[in-house]
Prior knowledge:
The protein has 11 helices and 12 strands. By secondary structure, the chain is of the alpha/beta class. The two termini are 29 Å apart.
Amino acid sequence: xxRVFVTRRLPGDALGRLAAxxxxxxxxxxxxPPPREQLVAxxxxxxxxxxxxxxxxxxxxxxxxxxxxxxxNYGVGVDNIDxxxxxxxxxxxxxxxxxxxxxxxxxxxxxxxxAARRLPQTxxxxxxxxxxxxxxxxxxxxxxxxxxxxIVGAGRIGEAVARRARGFDMTVLTATSRAGTPLPExxxxxxxxxxxxxxxxxxxxxxxxxxxxxxxxxxILVNTARGPIVDTDALTRALHDGTIAGAAxxxxxPEPLPPSHPLLAAPNVLVVPHIGSATPRTRARMADLAVxxxxxxxxxxxxxxxxxx
Length: 309
Ligand SMILES: NC(=O)C1=CN([C@@H]2O[C@H](COP(=O)(O)OP(=O)(O)OC[C@H]3O[C@@H](n4cnc5c(N)ncnc54)[C@H](O)[C@@H]3O)[C@@H](O)[C@H]2O)C=CC1
Ligand SMILES: O=CC(=O)O
């Protein structure tokens, strides 16, 4: 019988399936992620680790856990895992692609629309009683239909966002690491820029002060990928000085932002708490895929949803 450490309780019945498979399941029951020393102490005793984006999995941790036969990330992004270190140690890594694509794309588009039409600010004006009456020039936002959307990272989620944008008659430009519209041109031509690429050393601070200066002053940046792809200080300055018109962020750097962070005081910024995949059906399907990866890894079989370094 193998032992599996699951770093948070998961929605759905996938953990029941894991337990029913006969493996011993150790679940971290608190809402906060296990602190590093607890993560190491619990993973040290296990054959499989079902972890998530809040758990940094690096070489020293893997060295401390010689029994580990598989690392299954509950999420599609794997920037929390040192993939090269896992490969060097022969530990396969899996993730949860596809099942979260639509929920994540829905959220990206919801952020785009909300920032364009200033929904948080205008709703707050109603709630606080500041709204007096309808006015011809009151609460004007940005057009969405017929404008240009630049998608950086046209993979599963980026393409799903593109499909939604076409329903709004938007012109869609895509930049990938190898093809599509060159990033500088995409930034200059887009009314909305939406990020859907993984966080890697090459993409950290891809959107820096120079990139933001290339964007239209009327443009809105949407980030549902990973916070550090954007230079937070540069974005904060760009919003405060009007270099761009707005930003809608599901992910930030740091995450969460402290309430006193100047980014939160910037005009037309909307920040939500990393909810891209946060629907019950999506989270349950992610748990199924993660458990499938664990069971395959423990059986010595190829992972159904593998990630390569
Ligand atoms: N906010 C949230 O809750 C969620 C965030 N995510 C993030 O979204 C990312 C994308 O997920 P998927 O679409 O499933 O991944 P994917 O692997 O299908 O797509 C990523 C795309 O980015 C491209 N890319 C890589 N480097 C690039 C670069 N330098 N410039 C332009 N394009 C580049 C790749 O070629 C690929 O087409 C994940 O890595 C994760 O970080 C994913 C799910 C939920
Ligand atoms: O951020 C979430 C993920 O699945 O990646």
